[in-house]
Design goal:
The chain is mostly helical and about 80 residues long. It has one domain. Helix content is about 75%, strand content about 0%. This is Cell division protein FtsL. Part of a complex composed of FtsB, FtsL and FtsQ.
Length: about 80
């Protein structure tokens, strides 16, 4: 009788362990899914920021800003000095 009670107790404990493990697995899977969605959003934002950075750093835009905002012009050939090393 004692052996049967011990076996039943072990079977119940094992079943509870399986249920708890399944529960934890589902929680962790949901967390992984949430983190993957966040990663996808961050990767999309990173791509947009890189595109924006490339747009802001275009040579033509920088030259246009130098001319309009700073009043800069390219020096003439006559005003350029070349120094030999």
């Amino acid at each position: 009788m004692r052996t049967l009670s011990a076996l039943i107790l072990v079977a119940v404990a094992s079943a509870l362990g399986v249920v708890y493990t399944k529960y934890r697995t589902r929680l962790l899977f949901a967390e992984v899914q949430r983190l993957e969605q966040a990663l996808d959003a961050y990767e999309e934002e990173w791509g947009q920021l890189q595109l924006e950075q490339n747009t802001w750093a275009e040579h033509s835009r920088i030259e246009r800003m130098a001319r309009t905002r700073l009043g800069m012009v390219l020096p003439t050939r006559e005003s350029t000095l070349y120094i030999k090393p």
